[in-house]
Amino acid sequence: MIEAFLVVPFGILSNGLFSDAWFALLLGLLTGSFLNVCIYRWPLDLSIVRPRSHCPACEKTIAWYDNVPLLSFAMLGGRCRHCHARISPRYPVVEALTGALFFLMVHRWGLTPMAGKMCLFSAMLVVLFFTDLEERILPDEITVWGTLLGLALAVVAPTPDTTTQLLLWFAGAGAKSWIASLGAAAIATFLPSGVLWSAGWMFHKIRHREGLGFGDVKMVALLGCFLGLDAGLFTLVLGSLSGAILGLGFIKLTRRDPSTYELPFGTFLAGAALAVVVFSPWLLGW
Questions:
Q1: 8 A C-beta contact, residue 237 and residue 195
Q2: What's the burial of 203, exposed, middle or buried (CB within 10 Å: 0-12/13-18/19+)?
Q3: 126 and 145 in one domain?
Q4: Are residues 9 and 132 in the same domain?
Q5: Which residue in 15, 30, 60, 276 has a CA-CA distance of 20 to 30 Å to 219?
Q6: E strand residue ranges, the chain
Q7: Mean predicted confidence (pLDDT) in 155-183
Q8: Residues 38 and 71 in one domain
Q9: Domain limit, last residue, from 137, 152, 175
Q10: Average pLDDT, the chain
């Protein structure tokens, strides 16, 4: 059932008119338009279903022909048709990025459950990247529910991981591979996030201030269940290093107070995870 959910949409809609990867690009552009709604509304605790898309400045409903990914932004010159307020360049960036990621996932893995899983994961990472960058929020709609979804998908689209192989070895030749895959995903979900939570708890006890938000901990759990323990830990290290170098560099250049400035750690984790997924053939041998 889950496997069909991951691959059937591509197969039915492409129907031989486009290659699977090019249709994935189109689907990614449309998905990116929806992700923009999520990025804007979830931090405000607004419904992503109603009301229809509207201009935040004049609140006029956006017509369908003004909501075509990439094209509408270009045709309108980046402004609202009614009040001429500027439209954030984040909208076409998210659409183009999501389209490119969907294209890459399907081009690499074909019309398979793994491609569908990584398309979903990439879409989640795009949302987390921008919500944390703009609002310092990592929505539970992604981190919590996404983790549960990732655990379920580990059964039909397991991520190559050393932990899975070890579990199969300990269990013996008669072990079911899906049980090992689910167990490996559970370990990758709770072990790194538990260690990170413990480090944040100790920092709070010693320094008497928050050093790490619980949203970051939940995001690490999400990364682990989709990427596995090996790639999840690599992503955590890469995100931490990039956050330390780029974040501290930004603080120094803008002369902000490092003791009070809240670094968008989730943004760096999401960027690192996207890099790991995109370059996984070279980094991880997937």
A1: no
A2: middle
A3: no
A4: yes
A5: 30
A6: none
A7: 73
A8: yes
A9: 137
A10: 86
Contact partners, residue 235, CB within 8 Å, separation at least 6: 223, 227, 269, 272, 273, 276
Over residues 41-92, the pLDDT tens digits come to 999 999 998 888 888 889 899 998 999 999 999 999 999 999 999 999 999 9
Give yes or no for a cis peptide into 51 (omega within 30° of 0). yes
The total of other beta-carbon atoms located within 10 Å of residue 242's CB is 16
Q: What is the mean pLDDT of residues 213-227?
A: 91
CA distance 101 to 109: 12
Q: Which two tokens stand for residue 211?
A: 């050093």
Number of separate domains in the chain = 2
Shared domain for 167 and 33, answered yes or no, is no
Average pLDDT estimate for 159-187: 72
Residues 197 and 70 in one domain: no
- Give the domain extent around 266: 139-286
User: Which residues have C-beta within 8 Å of that of residue 268, sequence separation ≥ 6?
Assistant: 239, 240, 242, 243, 246, 247
Q: Output the pTM of the full model.
A: 0.86
Instruction: Report how far apart the first and last C-alpha atoms of the chain are (Å, whole number).
Output: 25
Helix (H) or strand (E) holding 1: none
CB-based contacts of 163, cutoff 8 Å, min separation 6: 183, 184, 187, 188, 228, 229, 230
Residues forming beta bridges with residue 61, ordered by sequence position: 54
Element spanning 17, H or E = none
